[in-house]
Amino acid sequence: NFTTGLRNDGSLYTWGLNSSYQLGDGTSTNRSSPTKIGTAAWSVVAAGQAHTCGIQVDGTLWCWGSNSSGRLGDGTTTTRTTPVKIGASTNWVQVANGYTATCGVRGNGTLWCWGNNGYGQVGDGTLTSRNAPVQVGSDTDWEMASLGRYHSCARKTNGEVYCWGRNNVGQIGTTDACASGTFVCQTSPTQVR
Fold first, then answer.
1. Which pTM does this prediction carry?
2. C-alpha triplet 56, 102, 77: angle, nearest 5°
3. Is pLDDT of 163 > 90?
4. What is the spatial distance between Cα 71 and Cα 21, in angstroms, rounded to a whole number?
5. Quick one: DSSP state of residue 66?
């Protein structure tokens, strides 16, 4: 219900529903036309269900909006009305937002996820929600991530795709049996063949 966009000069604009401060303009006012967010130059932006994350041209990661289950990754569960810097890393190259979780790839090829983990969608082998980025495994050849409602997928530089999290309708692309009644099939990346 909201949209984000980058102009050629790196300026960030958002518009649409703003009930969870997902536009990042410091208000909860819905916007029917693009509203410029700050003065920083951005290289990547990703919209989730009620939160937004972006990478500035200096490689820093920023998130804002609803922070239930720690989906912003700032170490809290506090809603943020404007962009807040996530950690000290300056080598983020890609970020993807899902319904209540977020994942990102750093320049060294490592994959990091955080937020709601009720179905294992963070991918760290647990069902514990994370309010700050945690590294998913130890591989250093990740290229990009993509998140759904309660599952996550990521692609490696060799083109292999891995998914994890909820699998009640086969969304992680495996035939593994789910834990009875929970639909949790994989809490860590599993290759899609």
1. 0.95
2. 95
3. yes
4. 14
5. -
CA distance 60 to 170: 35
Q: Token match 């820093």: residue?
A: 60
Nearest to 89 by CA among 70, 67, 104, 101: 104
> Mapping DSSP to helix (H, G, I), strand (E, B) and coil, where does residue 147 land?
strand
Strands (E), the chain: 2-6, 12-16, 31-36, 42-47, 51-56, 61-65, 80-85, 92-97, 101-106, 111-115, 130-135, 142-147, 151-156, 161-166, 184-191
Nearest to 82 by CA among 55, 62, 103, 68: 62
Contact present, 113 and 123 (Cβ < 8 Å):
yes
Helix (H, G, I), strand (E, B) or coil at 113: strand
Give mean pLDDT, residues 52-61: 98
